[in-house]
From TrEMBL:
This is Zgc:101664. It comes from the Eukaryota. GO terms for biological process: negative regulation of double-strand break repair via homologous recombination; positive regulation of double-strand break repair via nonhomologous end joining; positive regulation of isotype switching. Residues 52-73 are annotated as: Disordered. Residues 59-69 have a biased composition (Polar residues).
Length: 194
């Protein structure tokens, strides 16, 4: 019984000391909440961005001449949603198989064929872009998405490594390209050309 009483006295003493210590801490009143946005009662302050949106000229798709910026052509890309691909893909050539092994490429890793203006001697870059759009709609390019970089004078054709040799041969034949086109892989640069 004596131990129990001593424990009660010790606990009450600790509580008394704690209350005394906390009395010396400064207290402050919490300020009233004021939202960063105007309240529903204040109709004179509508939400509005600081600057007006850029004006787009519907004829050329460029910004208004008053902006003083140099004229920049836009780039566009296209891709197909899970289209079925029925053609049988031939096995890799010996040269491409060596590239895949040497660079440790995964078959589902993305690679990029680069078509330059100098590859389009028989036509133009815009004509090749049109041919690629048609091919994409007809599901002739498996796992591909295509991007035209008009400011660089290039078309980028992205595909899985698994289909990249087939896609390269398709591009050379269907788009009637001249010279060599190069296959580039992220962080490794150009790894193959045909």
């Amino acid at each position: 019984m004596g131990v129990y009483c001593r424990n009660i006295r010790a606990c009450s003493r600790v509580c008394f000391l704690t209350e005394g210590a906390l009395e010396h801490f400064p207290r402050r009143a919490i300020p009233a909440f004021s939202p960063w946005f105007p309240s529903g009662y204040d109709k004179s302050l509508p939400l509005k961005p600081q600057r007006d949106p850029p004006h787009i000229n519907s004829i050329h798709g460029q910004e208004t001449p008053s902006s003083g910026r140099t004229k920049q052509r836009r780039s566009w890309s296209v891709f197909c949603h899970g289209s079925a691909f029925n053609k049988n893909i031939q096995p890799f050539s010996k040269q491409f198989q060596e590239v895949v092994e040497r660079c440790h490429l995964h078959l589902l890793q993305r690679a990029k064929w680069i078509i330059r203006e100098l590859n389009c001697v028989a036509s133009s870059l815009e004509h090749v872009w049109t041919v690629l759009l048609r091919s994409m709609r007809q599901s002739k390019l498996p796992t591909c998405n295509v991007n035209i970089q008009r400011d660089l004078g290039q078309i980028w054709v992205f595909c899985d490594v698994l289909y990249s040799e087939y896609v390269g041969q398709f591009l050379r034949c269907e788009c009637q390209l001249t010279g060599q086109i190069s296959l580039s892989v992220h962080k490794q640069g150009a790894v193959f050309s045909m």
